[in-house]
Amino acid sequence: MVRILVIHGPNLNLLGTREPEVYGSTTLSEIDAMLSELAGELGVEVESFQSNHEGAIIDAIHDARGRFDGILLNPGAYTHYSLAIRDAVAAVGLPVVEVHLSNIYQREPFRHRSVIAPVAAGTIAGFGTESYRLGLRALAHLLQGDRAQRRN
Ligand code: DQA
């Protein structure tokens, strides 16, 4: 079965109470529960991880090699400047779908640039918690397509 690692970056542990006008009122554990339910429907397995630390996120990306087929990643503010996370994504070569709750292109100019986007398979932003669900669908589609191709 296709295995997907979900990585939530800094401050996302505070979802539910953090700037609800921007990020909504759903908590991170509710998002993880939604993703587990959708994973069941899609026939994939998901495991979720959250960290406020850049190095821990990099370690999780490295450790995903051989254990997961792809990564659903919300890098939080690291999106905009962490070349180290970008390099980790490029180094492991696993397909990564980048997701954001908010539409980063409608917000402050410093959020308009993602250093992760050029190494991601694709990006989904602006749909609130639905961004995660759309991202999981997109990644599952990509990975299940890969598997079918390898079988043929
Ligand atoms: C975010 C957008 C980032 O700019 C911000 O720093 C976050 C959350 C989002 O999901 O909308 O922490 O990644």
UniProtKB/TrEMBL annotation:
Origin: domain of life: Bacteria
Transmembrane regions: none
InterPro entries: DHquinase_II, DHquinase_II_CS, DHquinase_II_sf
Pathway: Metabolic intermediate biosynthesis; chorismate biosynthesis; chorismate from D-erythrose 4-phosphate and phosphoenolpyruvate: step 3/7
Keywords assigned: Amino-acid biosynthesis, Aromatic amino acid biosynthesis, Lyase
Keyword Transmembrane carried by entry: no
Reactions accelerated catalytically: 3-dehydroquinate = 3-dehydroshikimate + H2O
Residue numbers marked as site, Transition state stabilizer: R18
Range of residues in the leader sequence: none
Active site: residue positions: Y23, H100
MF GO annotations: 3-dehydroquinate dehydratase activity
EC annotation from Swiss-Prot or TrEMBL: 4.2.1.10
Residues given in the record as substrate binding sites: N74, H80, D87, L101, S102, R111
Function: Catalyzes a trans-dehydration via an enolate intermediate.
Subunit annotation: Homododecamer.
UniProt name for this protein: 3-dehydroquinate dehydratase
Organism: Symbiobacterium thermophilum
